[in-house]
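A sample follows:
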Amino acid sequence: MDRAPLLQFIRFGLVGTSGLGVDWLSLKIFLSFMSFSPAICSAYIISASWNWMLNRLWTFRKTSHDRHKASTQWFRFIIATLPGFFANRSIALLLHYYVPSIRQENLLILFCGALGGMTINFLLTKYCVFSAT
């Protein structure tokens, strides 16, 4: 049995976990000067860029440098993760605006959103951004 796809998924999840921290810190900074909706979208660009870099260097290192230069690959990563972004941020915004009991729990809100977008983002990233062919 080939364990490589499972190991990639685990690495992708670990990268995403670190990205969740970057997302949370970015959100805290953006919330100091903008409202929640633009802040959470702005924070996503920072965390997505972080995730792309770590996935390029670690998760998909065997294929990450083969096809595209870094700037093209970053752009492809951002585009490929848009469906996951919409799932992620839709969940986060719904929780923030419609579940008052957790409105102040930004890390929990971001975590729930991240779970919603993770599988979508893994598959699109693996096959559309970092594939060897």
